Amino acid sequence: MKSAVYPGSFDPATNGHLDIIKRASKIVDKLYVAVLDNPSKTPLFTVGERVAQLKEILKDHDNIEVRSFSGLLVDFARSVNSNIIVRGLRGVTDFSYEFQMALSNRSLDSDIETLFISADTQYLFFSSSQVKEIAYFKGNIDNMVPDIIKTELLKKLENM
């Protein structure tokens, strides 16, 4: 069985993330969506909230499993018996960063391969940070996130 890991902070998960997840899940038998718990960052949503949101959104996809992790990505990949890391690319700046990360991961484990999937053109122009900022200033994020994320994001920002 061929499996892959799609890591990210997913704070919040966007339609761009979901597009990469769904497309990657067609390439492998099992896709692990790995929600990063990074103690050096202060996310808007807790790891538990992000995992729960993704599980709800992806509940109808039998070959996708959502988990959280902290530490090295290669260690997480090994723990789920995967040697493929999936990364989405929006543009040249993403590629530069992701290429460096791929080389770092490969230096830590020579069996790890990184599969780059280009973002669909409709998702090229926004990131999770931009979605949060637009939502904070009451802009329209309907085409950027699923309804469940929009509802929870607006509720979270209301209480700030």
Could you explain how this protein is built, in words?
The protein has 160 residues and is α/β, with parallel strands linked by helices. The chain has six helices and five strands, in the order βαβαβαβαβαα. The strands form two sheets. A three-stranded parallel sheet has the order 1-2-3, with helices on both faces. Strands 4-5 form a two-stranded parallel ribbon. Strand 4, helix 4 and strand 5 (113-118) form a beta-alpha-beta unit. The longest helix is centred in the middle third of the chain and has 17 residues, at 92-108. The chain is globular and about 45 Å long. The relative contact order is 0.20.
Helix content: 40-55%
Number of strands: 5
CATH superfamily: HUPs
CATH class: Alpha Beta
> Reading side by side through the largest sheet, how are the strands ordered?
1-2-3
Q: What structural class do you assign from the helix and strand content?
A: alpha/beta
CATH architecture, please? 3-Layer(aba) Sandwich
Mean pLDDT: 95
Shape: globular
